[in-house]
Each structure stands twice: as structure tokens, then as C-alpha cells.
Amino acid sequence: MAKTTPNHTQTVSGWAAHDSSGKITPYTFKRRENGGTDVTIKILYCGICHTDVHHAKDDWGITMYPVVPGHEITGVITKVGSDVEGFKDGDKVGVGCLAASCLDCEYCKTDQENYCEKLQFVYNGIFWDGSITYGGYSQMLVVDYRYVVHIPESLPMDAAAPLLCAGITVFSPLKDHGLVSTAGKRIGVVGLGGLGHMAVKFGKAFGHHVTVISTSPSKQAEAKERLGADDFIISTNPDQLQAAKRSLDFILDTVSADHALLPILELLKVNGTLFIVGAPDKPLQLPAFPLIFGKRSIKGGIIGGIKETQEMLDVCGKHNITCDIELIKADTINEAFQRLLKNDVRYRFVIDIANASPAT
User: Fold this and answer.
1) Which of 1, 17, 108, 326 has the largest count of CB atoms under 10 Å?
2) Cβ 184 vs Cβ 155: under 8 Å
């Protein structure tokens, strides 16, 4: 299948991986002309997600090289197609994981296009015209307006970028379980990384008692003093786990490393829910007894639809919620990848695309 079509005439500077080494290098490629339902965006910032590293290294065996990663994109609209509604030149906007869906199935028609069977992602996907999609590690993007959201004026564009993936990934399950509109629940957050720290911020903003569950004792002070978590459980400490047994209504598991579910499930009350948004490489073992003796549920999910993403951003604007970021230059992406694999970031790298030199 062709990587581009004859309509791809715009030369764009970006950064790509070309093989399973995952090394990111400058890359010049073509994007399509702005169509009737498209907007053209000058990219200012792009967050780095664990998914970017997986795709760059072909960890999942699905990468189409060269791959231009990046699905946490913020920028400014520079061109608007004739059929575009709700956007204009100069608007501050964001683009997340979604580039296309069928627009006709039950999920697309109920604002759950993120679960459409024909969903295509903003990079390493196949767009409607048959071209391979390239992501936000680039200086410009052409995207169908139906997959674009407005960034509230009150939010800084750099710290808002990770909200397009990390933010919506944890917001969606909280909303799905009534935790955005109803306060006073006891929720747990497993892992204090890019996703986890956003879950803590949301949980506290929505009026809940938040417990961080982590393997790292060193994160306790940060979780409680800086992010406002109420409690901290070291997941390898049997005494702490026993003391917190059946204490939580809902747990959001953000960990992508292999880990045991049994001690986590035991923390849930009867009828409690464990919601998984992390993606470990190996299958998780599912213990039956804590489920059947506690009437507990395990669910999972990815990001959210566009309508829900806009709602999340509006909530962030209202509560002044942003991601804690480390802003980097484009020529240090590879170093950021290595640090990310070591969890050496608090809590999300964001590439300063606006001040990057064009690819040569």
C-alpha cells in the first residue's frame, strides 16, 4: 500500500525512526493538501508517550517504517477547509491519537469513535486515502477537523499537550464510573508516572480520597506533598496491603510493566472495579478468588472519543489542571526515550517543536 498519494505535495520536516533500533533522526516527508474537511496545524508542542517508543522499536510487530511518532499534539490552525465547522485560522487546538474512523457504526454515532473497528491512529495508521499517517514529531499536520479539539485559553500549550493522550486516558474511566460528577469516593491509582500523576490530579480536583499504590517508596513524599494524594501504599509491603484491604471503591491501574493483580484486587471493596489502562507486554494473570469472593470487576479502555476529549480539556481549563512536563529540544528525543524507559521523567517529556530547526 502506498505511503502517499498524488495529493501529498506539501514538504514537511519531522523526526522518524527507520528501523527497530528505534533511533529517531530528522526526516523530510510529504503531507496531503488541505481538503474540504481538513485543517492545517502549525505544531508547537508534542508529548512523548511510551507508545511512541514501542512503535519506534517495533515492540508490537506492527510498525510501518519510517514511522513519525507523536499523538499528543498542540498547535495553531493556519488553514481551514471549506466544509470545516467550529474552527478558524488562529485557533489553538490539539490532536490526540485519532486520525480516522468509519463515522457510521454505533460507536462513531455515539461519540465512542475510539472503539470503532475501522479506527486509524494519527501515526502508523492508514488514512481514508490509503496513505500511511505520520504523527506529531513534525512541524505541520493536516487533519480532518472531526478529530481536532480546542485548547482552552487558560492552559499553556506545552503542558496541555500530554492531556491529549495521558489526560484523556485516565479521565475517560473516571467519567465512565461517575467519578467526575460525584465526589467522596475512595479511589486508588497504581503507578505514579505520566498517566498516574494525572489520575491523582483529577481525583483530587473531583473531590475524592486518593491513594497511590506504588513499588517505589521514594515517590511517597512527592505523591502526598506535591500532588496531594491522601494515602500511599507500597505494593510490596504485606502489612500495608493488609491494612488497606477492602478500602477502595475504584482503582485505576496505569502500570505498563508486568505486575500481580491479586494484591491490588484485594484492596477493592465488594462491588469495586479495577480499571486497566496500562499495557504490559506479557499477559496479566487473572486470579479468580478475589473476583468471586468480592463481586469485583476488571475493565480496560483506551483514550476517549473526541467529544469526551473536549470535555476533559474544558474541565482542565476550569480546574487549571495540566501535566507536569520536562520540555526538550527535538535533537534530544533519543535521550528522552532512554530516560523514559528508566522512568526518569517527572512526568512527561514534551518536544518544543516550535523552536526546532527544520530537518536536513
Assistant:
1) 17
2) no
